[in-house]
Amino acid sequence: MSQEPSERPTSDEEWQEKLSDEEYRILREAGTEAPFSGEYVDHKEDGAYACAGCGAELFDADTKFDSGCGWPSFYDVDDDRVETRLDTSNGMRRTEVLCAECGGHLGHVFEDGPEPTGQRYCINSVALNFDDGNDGDDAE
User: Fold this and answer.
1) Other C-beta atoms lying within 10 Å of the C-beta of residue 25
2) With left for phi above 0 and alpha for psi between -120 and 50, is residue 86 left, alpha or beta?
3) Which of 26, 47, 119, 125 is most buried (CB neighbours < 10 A)?
4) What's the confidence (pLDDT) of residue 140?
């Protein structure tokens, strides 16, 4: 479940207090985790993936697929859950994916995914929390 906007950090200092160093590096500084290192790369349970920064539900496990790229990949998301923008960092031209609720960097989207969308949302595990829906707590 998403945090109320009044509970969400509003400054870098508050975000640093709320997030682990790795979460802060990825969500607030647009970092990335090493390929094949994230806890959700091979995760296959039913449920939903939420933003680790604010708790907003982002991706349904039914849209997750094995892309072989080294990061959790999803072929679809509701447009109101994420925002995208051009990313020209590191000498590349990519489309960055951000949480629409808190602006946290999630990863990138590419146009080489499976049908029906043709999209591959390549997302950092560190930017996600998984909820199996059974007890309201995130799965470990």
Assistant:
1) 17
2) beta
3) 26
4) 46
